[in-house]
Amino acid sequence: MNPFARRSLPLSGPALDALPVTPDDAADLTRVAIGLYVETGGTLNLVTAAGETRSLAVADFSILPVGVRRVRASGTTALGIHALVLA
Description:
Elements: E1 17-20, E2 35-40, E3 42-48, E4 53-58, E5 62-64, E6 68-72, E7 79-85
Antiparallel strand pairs: 1-7, 2-5, 2-7, 3-4, 3-6
């Protein structure tokens, strides 16, 4: 039984899937993420759901609870990035 089948999904989660992210300077993620999970820390250069470009330092095994539309290749050194998505 899927406990999520008949519920509206809150933006606070939980995410329904975690999609691997390949940083790209020009292309948005296939779905806007409600957050990111990072396996190996470093710098994330990203574009938020609000359209702002941010550069953030993250530690190993971090969960970043911010809406993200793009993870840029330029300036990103973190590895093992996954987009947490609702649908």
